[in-house]
Design brief:
There is one protein chain. By secondary structure, the chain is an alpha+beta fold. It is built from 28 helices and 14 strands. The strands form four sheets. It has an eight-stranded antiparallel beta barrel with strand order 1-2-3-4-5-6-8-9. A two-stranded antiparallel sheet has the order 7-10. Helix 1 (4-35) crosses helix 27 (733-746) and helix 17 packs parallel to helix 22.
Length: 779
């Protein structure tokens, strides 16, 4: 029967790894196989090495006849634009628009035309993140896409197609290419079983397609092309029996439910709608005061309550407010989520919440500085205490993007349909004045709305459409953790003063205060040396900083001997904790370096791992300072600021680690579901799918181990309170409790629960009564 910490580990892994993996895998499966019916064509690569099986053969095999063939030599010259490259076949193939899958046609022999050619990238290697995968497979019709140009996945390009070929001898699917200078064909295995006339050919079978030798083409030309390619298509490929016809009794089976269809095709919009409406109901049901969750300059900047950026953006307290915002979110999500992909659309929303808060606080800071020059204290106080709530800032950003994506002019003024504004292009940048007009119209109709909050949304909308920040930097696992770390390092630098501490009169604490002084003066580089100078560290002794254990044990005073052993046990416990944290820090550093080899070095999964390493380094140093101060019995008013700073760092690590592990699980789902397409986009994969999956599992395990250490440190320092609560405990309560249970089970101290009494006995009570009894007996 598994122990409690093993059950907690299973719960934690299921919450932050399996749940994101399952949701992402199901979404990608529906999006590619059912909704769009994509067929992916890519190289035949190895699952272990990640290399193309035909890479060496296509370059090294040159027949003598190929040397004599001037056309082949010219085609393989580097400067010729007609160079034979089988990667032209790679990409996405979709059925013709007028030949969607027929449920009643007996022989549905649809052709699949290439609608997107893979942009083969040779400059960077490594497996991509889920944001890059979603950007690859979504429709590249916006400047937010990283693809060059604005292509449409529904328009055929080139002369490549997949068709069903049926002759008297065989039946098979073949991919034909007219852009390689010859009618080259790669075909699947033949259908050997006897298929009756009622068989429906739905999709090409997934697997290896072998190049067919043509008698019309020269042998030298056939050698210059890859012999095999790999195709992945939806299943099943065949349907033996046609579906039942529509009758009066089963007509409802064929009727599409628009609400369910919207739920399946726009999951990010539905999730945001439910989240905002659920929070609005919770705030109304609990009678929450808006001042507790709103955006306010004095709370966010001066009070360092950065979580208000999320609670303020998702808080609504009036029916009209939540109604208008959710209707706008429904309309914009229905329009834009299909273009950018559900995953990236959701992550962009999280990015816009952070960006609008930063821009809004920056504008308030600028106005405060302006009024400080004019000595207008009333305006300064008003700006500091002004509160705002609502999702309107993010919606204004999406409104800007929607306006810039439209081809027709936008008319922002109600009842004035003739007052419209067109979009102007300045190179790659687009601009339209319509969102600014909408801002002033909203301010005129409803004076209570937040002007700076909406203006911040407009600024962020233009910035996001112009390509900043990139999707990898704007991903939740990078942006949130990065902003939190920078804010903690530069805005909340409460540290213990680095000054020599005056030893108290009691000589027992002299060594501890000198140890603390050395620690604060030497910093992180001198930690190892200081630990070696502690009692019990070996034969190294360092004068006044070490206690002579021989003299302590040889003394006849039992109190001195007990204090020396107690101090030695405390120092040993301190060394053990520091060694454990340092070992895990080294493991995190190792997987961070290896991540640059396995994954795309500009992806969010690599950048987030670098953030986790930075968090752990700063957290380790701050924790050791707190431990040393506690051991040295420093006053609470001196150790409290550093303890708060340490708690902030470890809370940021837990938050960033949960986001990083969730994105890692989503990325793994993308690799498994879209392996062929990823291989067609990434030609330089140093490792195949299997080694990359194993390394990702190892990285997730090490990050979970680091999160367990962070949870233990937070609980030991009293930085987690389940009674008073707080936004951090409310959101990550399940993660904290599971991590603490795992830490208690794995890192449980092996010290005995009791120790034998040592020293002189002291009578604690009953002295006067015993004295009377003894006197009475003597008399």
């Amino acid at each position: 029967m598994p122990s409690s910490w093993q059950v907690s580990l299973a719960q934690l892994a299921g919450l932050i790894v399996l749940l994101p993996f399952t949701v992402t895998y199901l979404h990608l499966y529906y999006y590619t196989n059912i909704q769009n019916e994509y067929c992916f064509v890519g190289p035949h690569t190895s699952l272990i090495s990640g290399k193309n099986y035909n890479a060496e053969r296509s370059d090294s095999i040159i027949d003598s006849s190929a040397v004599a063939d001037n056309e082949v030599i010219a085609s393989k010259s580097p400067g010729d634009s007609s160079q034979i490259d089988v990667s032209q076949l790679f990409g996405i193939y979709t059925p013709q628009q007028n030949q969607k899958r027929s449920k009643s046609k007996k022989n549905d022999r649809r052709q699949f035309h290439q609608t997107y050619a893979s942009a083969v990238s040779s400059s960077r290697w490594g497996w991509p993140s889920i944001t890059q995968i979603s950007d690859m497979v979504s429709s590249p019709t916006s400047q937010l896409s990283h693809k060059n140009g604005s292509k449409n996945l529904h328009q055929p390009i080139g002369g490549n197609s997949i068709a069903f070929v049926e002759t008297k001898e065989s039946r098979k699917w073949c991919i034909e290419s007219l852009s390689l200078g010859e009618r080259a064909q790669w075909c699947s295995t033949e259908f050997t079983n006897e298929l009756d006339k009622r068989t429906i050919y739905l999709y090409p079978p997934s697997g290896i397609y072998t190049k067919q030798q043509s008698s019309q083409s020269s042998a030298s030309s056939s050698l210059s092309l890859a012999t095999t390619i790999y195709i992945t298509c939806p299943t099943p490929t065949l349907q033996k029996q046609p579906p039942p016809k529509k009758t009066r009794h089963n007509e409802q089976l064929f009727r599409e439910n628009k609400n369910i269809l919207f739920l399946i095709r726009h999951p990010a919009t539905v999730l945001l709608l439910l989240f905002n409406m659920g929070l609005a109901f919770h705030y109304w049901n609990q009678r929450v005061n808006p001042s507790l969750v709103c955006k306010q300059y004095s709370k966010i900047v001066d009070g360092h309550e950065w979580w208000r950026g999320f609670t303020g953006a998702t808080a609504h307290f009036e029916p009209l407010h939540i109604g208008f915002n959710m209707m706008s979110l429904h309309t914009l999500g229905k329009e834009l989520e299909g273009e950018y992909g559900s995953i990236n659309f959701f992550l962009y929303n999280v990015t816009l919440v952070v960006m609008t808060t930063i821009v809004m606080m920056g504008m308030v800071y600028g106005r405060i500085r302006w009024y400080q020059r004019q000595n207008n204290d009333s305006k300064i106080l008003q700006l500091r205490e002004t509160s705002s709530v609502g999702y309107s800032g993010v919606l204004f950003a999406w409104m800007v993007i929607s306006t810039l994506e439209r081809k027709q002019p936008t008319c922002p003024i109600p009842f004035f349909n003739d007052v419209c504004f067109s979009t102007y292009s300045f190179g790659q940048l687009k601009f339209n004045i319509a969102p600014v007009v909408s801002l002033f119209m909203a301010q005129f109709i409803m004076p209570r709305v937040s002007f700076m909050g909406h203006l911040a949304g407009i600024i962020c909308g233009f910035g996001l459409h112009w390509g900043w920040p990139p999707i990898e930097l704007g991903s939740a696992n990078v942006l949130i953790g990065g902003v939190f770390l920078l804010g903690n390092l530069f805005w909340r630098r409460g540290v213990v003063p680095v000054v020599p501490l005056t030893p108290p009169d009691d000589n027992d604490h002299d060594d501890d205060n000198q140890l603390l002084s050395l620690l604060l003066e030497s910093g992180q580089d001198g930690i190892d040396g200081i630990l070696m100078s502690m009692p019990g560290s070996g034969d190294v002794e360092n004068g006044n900083n070490a206690i002579d254990r021989d003299s302590a044990t040889s003394t006849t005073d039992p109190f001195a001997r007990g204090k020396a052993k107690k101090k030695e046990r405390e120092m040993e416990e301190m060394r053990r904790k520091h060694k454990t944290v340092e070992s895990i820090r080294n493991l995190i550093g190792l997987v961070t370096v290896l991540s640059f080899l396995f994954f795309d070095w500009m992806s969010s999964i690599v950048l987030s791992q670098c953030l986790l390493l930075a968090y752990f380094i700063f957290g380790t140093r701050s924790s050791f300072i707190v431990w040393a101060c506690t051991q040295a019995k420093v006053e609470n008013d001196m150790i409290t600021p550093e303890k708060q700073r340490c708690g902030m760092i470890w809370r940021g690590y837990v938050m960033s680690c949960v986001l990083a592990i969730a994105i890692d699980g989503m990325s793994v789902a993308g690799w498994i579901q879209l392996q062929t397409f990823v291989s067609s986009e990434k030609t330089k994969l140093l490792f195949g799918l299997v080694p990359s999956l194993l390394f990702m599992l190892l990285r997730i395990a090490i990050n979970i181990l680091g999160m367990v250490i962070a949870s233990k440190v937070l609980h030991d320092m009293g930085q987690v309170s389940y009674i008073s609560g707080g936004i951090f405990v409310r959101v990550f309560s399940r993660v904290l409790t599971c991590s603490k249970a795992i830490g208690d089970g794995v890192f449980l101290s092996q010290r005995p629960l009791w120790t034998a009494f040592e020293g002189r006995g002291i009578r604690l009570g009953g002295g006067e009564l015993l004295a009377r009894i003894s006197r009475s007996r003597s008399s």
